[in-house]
Amino acid sequence: MQEKNTSDKIMQEIKSGELKIRSKFSILTEKIGIGSMFLLGLLISIFVLALLFYYLKSSENLFYLRFGWPGLAPFLESFPYLYLLISIPVILFLAWLFKKKKWLYKYPFKYIALFLLIFVLLTSSVFAFSGVVEKIEEHVFRNKNFNFISKPKIFEGNRNGMAGIILEKGEGYLILQTPIGEERVEVRLELDEFEIGDFALMIGERQGNEFIVRQIMIHPTSSMPLMQRNIRSKFFPGVNSPRKPFGPEFRLMK
Amino acid sequence: MSDEEVVEIVRSQNQELYAEIIHRYQAKLTRYLRYFVHDKDDIDEVLQLVFIKTFRNLNAFDIEKKFSSWIYRITHNEAINFIKKRHNFNIDLDVVAYKIIDEKFDIKKDMDNEFLRDKIEKAFSELKMKYSEPLILFYFQDKSYEEISDILKIPTSTVGVLINRGKKQLREQLTFDN
Lengths: 254, 178
Hints:
The structure holds 2 protein chains of 2 kinds. By secondary structure, chain A is α+β, with helices and mostly antiparallel strands. Chain A has 8 helices and 5 strands, in the order ααααααβββββαα.
């Protein structure tokens, strides 16, 4: 009796047209929508991580570690946390979507999550080291609205580390061109080996308006192309030749 | 005619043949739902929802897969939704179920059958759903590991692990109480 009632009720709704089968188009649209969301998330995470790897490769950040333990503070200070703040939630969202939709449920979720993470890391590394991201960054650099791509630091201004071009050398001090402007630093080391135009990487500490240098290294400007461009944009806006080397003759052009 | 063939006909030619699907699955799904939903009216309500959802989404069913696993999946989801709404999960086992547990779960029974029946029901209700569901599907609905994997959307290897853990917990609970 119960069976007849349930069956009758449902068949009545089907016959009257009240109950309809969802169209294949609507089901396909739903699948495409979710698939697109996943793909977009994947592309964003790959792109942002590629920017992170590129930033680490071409800025002063990793070079601070060459100072050993004293370089850890400026390394952490200049680390591009913004890229991590974007990419980690996106990757977590992708993992959540996989779990919620029960895609590939035949395989344990931890293996899928691991595969996803390795895939994203590998693909973004390939993009970062192949020069693709550098080309994008150079192109975007000219558009001031997207400057955050090449300046992802949360903290502007250096407390424990600094990098820039030596503009002036004096008794116990140097003046540098840095991405945030001209900076005067107090140096209690021998300055004979440093020349104007050298690209200096230094660690120390800021006391009020003064930066006291503890250790200093000279690097070729070509090893940090991102730093080059950031300094150039600060002091020589509108100059479109990121590969032109810095030097005293360039300063005279200003 | 297999379920999949019936579904194909309903989708393409004759929607009234859906009555055959209802006829084939009503009793089975009612028995399955009784483990989660006690009230007869509630069972009818959930069952109707299941058949309505199944019909509405027939175009989403992949004809290469088993229809039985698909409709059980929908039933499982509706049962979960019902339990979440009512905040209440108590297993209600029938005579067949007790007999199966008695035979297969290796429980030391120095108690009379009524007492054992109450004990088993209580112990089953206290099991987490992730253990009780595969147990119910395997022992009381005669589903294979593969089918349970498709219904609950978990790896096949995990099905075996959950069943063994569920049995162990149930046995421990019942022998401890004894």
